[in-house]
């Protein structure tokens, strides 16, 4: 049985503490922001933290092929090859299906029609908005979110990323309402430099104290680093 709080702790990394010591089991997390705000980097850090603490995960990507994703993670110092080999991580690339597709397709129904994707402790879809913008069935989003809630009730953690430039406000509102944890990423000027910032807008069932605004930067071979100073 999965414990009440899923750990994401990495040595020398403050993110787990800033997020209250981990992510509560049963969380539906929405990470939203404009292009370039750091959504993929943030969720890649979460994934690696989960894997390093012994959990299993599925990761669906609309941006990377498998080889590209391995290289991207290696550039951050996150070696995922051992987890892929041991089948602790299931990586699925939708990039070939999405590239050059102009017509609408039934992507969401195909996702919850693949039960193996939902067997791991954590399910990540990056980016969910890319799939949503190509979905042809209006009812598919509702059906998919109902399925997500069912999976979360089994103590799984579901993480969706959304580019706010890709979907309309009404659809984004539906996602925000369904999420039990909402993190909004942005890039702000701080001390004369551009800084990435994660703002926790909603955090239901938090098990510990968390920091509402988490400034961070990304360094090659080191990964995501939480800044000490706050961004306001």
Please give the CATH class.
Answer: Alpha Beta
Residue windows where pLDDT falls under 50 for at least 5 positions: none
If you compute it from the alpha carbons, what radius of gyration comes out, rounded to the nearest whole angstrom? 17 Å
Main beta sheet, described?
9 strands, mixed
Proportion in helices:
25-40%
CATH architecture: 3-Layer(aba) Sandwich
| Beta-strand fraction estimate | 25-35%
- Give the overall shape: globular
The rounded distance between the terminal residues' Cα atoms is 40 Å
Structural domain tally: 1
Name the structural class.
alpha/beta
How many helices does DSSP assign? 9
Order the strands across the largest sheet as they lie in space: 5-4-6-7-3-8-9-10-11
What's the mean pLDDT score?
Answer: 89
CATH homologous superfamily identity:
P-loop containing nucleotide triphosphate hydrolases
Number of strands: 11
Protein name: Flagellar accessory protein FlaH
InterPro entries: AAA+_ATPase, KaiC-like_dom, P-loop_NTPase
Keywords: ATP-binding, Cell projection, Cilium, Flagellum, Nucleotide-binding
Pfam families: ATPase
